[in-house]
Amino acid sequence: MHMSLEGLLTCNAEPSLQHRTVLADAAVAHLVHDPDGLYVDGTVGHGGHAELIARRLSPQGRLVAVDRDEQALTLAATRLNGFGKQVTFCRDNFKNLPLILNRLGITAIHGLLLDLGVSTLQLLDPERGFSFATEGPLDMRMDQTQKVTAAQLVNSLPEEELANLIFTYGEERHSRRIARRICEVRQLRRIASTAELADIVERALGPRRPGQIHPATRTFQALRIAVNNELEGLGDLVQKMVDLLLPGGRLVVISFHSLEDRIVKQNFQLLAGHCICRRPPDLCGCPRRERVRLITRKPEVPTAEEIRLNPRARSAKMRVAERI
Question: Model-level pTM?
Fold first, then answer.
């Protein structure tokens, strides 16, 4: 859904002073190579990357800012108010970017940025239910208009399905033990809050040792990914967006867990004409067609200083590809 700046600014939202944009300067330095160009921030969030992009643009440059979270989009619009009509805001899922750009009459772009992380605003808002650090409803929806919540998955999925979800998306090796305990509890009562689920997982696994992450971390990650379909269609989008990049245009993707990074890495490798199936040449089905140049052979990661200032940045990995 395309939204005007004036319409967004009528929504009530308080800016979060605790959010720090991850790899901000590095990502934008890779992305913006033509100040007169047209760029897309597919996950605009609080507008940290978008503001830096806009500042690098000439008066002829243009930015399309997309996010499916209305509250985040409102904050970004407030932050970018001074750039006027140079910035177009769209409330939608970034996986619909080909359709979004088509609706805007855009057939080619100079660069696309995707920051796949959850914003601090979402994590710190108890009502959004993303974190076990605060008591709140077991929600986890990035788009509040969608129907499926984490509570629905936790209270309705069969035990085996729930265990597989936690194992696949959370990479949690004790997923069966967790799922069994969840199912035992939900026979007695509906599991409705973040604190309640965190306590169930902790009781299933036992308290954490010093230096270990909270026992519920991987379970919460798995549910968030499932609720928001975070992995579905990501590889296809990367492939499709390369077709919209002008020669020399860049695709910059920042991921925060291994499942996302693996999808991005494999699709970048395919687009660079490399084999990812590791089969003998006569059995290889990889396209072997070089469409991009890999700017980052290995992912760029935050500096020690950035991690000190923002511990949530520690898992970030950034990959960059350039259209040939």
Answer: 0.90
